[in-house]
Amino acid sequence: MSAALDRMLTAIADPKRRRAIALLGERPRSAGALAVALGLAPPAMSRHLRALKAGGLVEDGHPAFDARVRIYRLKDGATDELKRWLAETEVLWTHQLAAFKRHVESNGE
Question: Domain 3-76, what fold?
Fold first, then answer.
């Protein structure tokens, strides 16, 4: 497992961060809008957004009309490595469980 995948899994381990990801999946939002939607104080939301950025899941930018505001959005392709790892893990478990089933059935006779 790569360090980037480790950071991503760490970032999504928190339920508030997963909820923030769900909200950003609907549309880009400001940190303030996310904080209100999640019932968090701005400093707490800031910490969660830093973790999500460190995990490579979100990115931020400034709208053309106001450089003081940051708008957060999901990063394109951010979960590609996670999806690959999950698919590989599913194949591994499928093979392991099938082998275990064969073992149990052959020893039960």
Answer: Arc Repressor Mutant, subunit A (1.10.10)
